[in-house]
């Protein structure tokens, strides 16, 4: 029996402030709120792109995302070209998001692919990248993947 083909569906994230996080993901990614609950103890928002559920936000946590513990390392989103990454970077700077590596960088020294590495309001690490166009930039570390260490 062969294994079925798996494809990522939506991703669910715990957040501390549903309004703040929904506004962040709407600003940076252009996601639309396709469903929401404000019921006490069961607050959530469904975020969609072109009618497809992409991200769910669950208000079930306090504090900041613990990068030193096992779990999600980062969440990555691919865009068509470097201009789209540059648009995202401009939005991130405008809203005061934490950006790592100083801005857009390649995935490793000599790679053409690259992007911007940043955090959401709860410290969840995110990446927006393009498959090419970043090769003229310097990588933060020549010997390790950029997305692995931020």
UniProtKB/TrEMBL annotation:
Signal peptide: none annotated. InterPro entries: Fosfomycin_Res_Enzymes, Glyas_Bleomycin-R_OHBP_Dase, Glyas_Fos-R_dOase_dom, Glyoxalase_1_CS, VOC_core. Gene3D superfamilies: 2,3-Dihydroxybiphenyl 1,2-Dioxygenase, domain 1 (3.10.180.10). Residues 7-131 form the VOC domain. It comes from the Bacteria. Keywords: Metal-binding. Pfam families: Glyoxalase. This is VOC family protein. It comes from Nonomuraea mangrovi.
